[in-house]
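Hi, here's the filled form for the chain we discussed.

Project: internal
Contact: R.S.
Residues: 150
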Amino acid sequence: MAVALPQRSTMIRLLPPGGVETGLCHERFQLPARGTSVAAARRRVRVHLPAWGFCADLCDAVELVISELVTNALVHTASEQILCVLRAEAEVLYVEVADQGGGPVGPSARQAGAGDESGRGLMLVCALVDAWGDRPAAGGGRVVWARLRR
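And the returned structure, exactly as it came back:
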């Protein structure tokens, strides 16, 4: 049974030049569980992070992280919608991807073999972020989050 994710309006507070150290920036968006949503999530990162004062290198890293997390939600759950959140607080950026339900166990990084065509996504995430994890989502499903510092 699919659980509906609440649709919330997007709130963006653009800050003065100098970046996010003076406030909070927040972007929340819901995507259909389709392959085209991975590119849509990357585009959102490319629009908002530079406007929030984050450098190109961090934008590249977050773009890859959100790609991997959205892809995992598509591949490993029976979700109809995926909820993404980008949140900047001072020098820290949080990325969250919520699905509508997978199994009772959260994701874990694994060692892919040399001939494997998949299985490296969370290893990439581990290499790019300061911390990551998962928690149950309100109403079912799971939220996978990542934290990156400027």
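Let me know if anything looks off before we file it.
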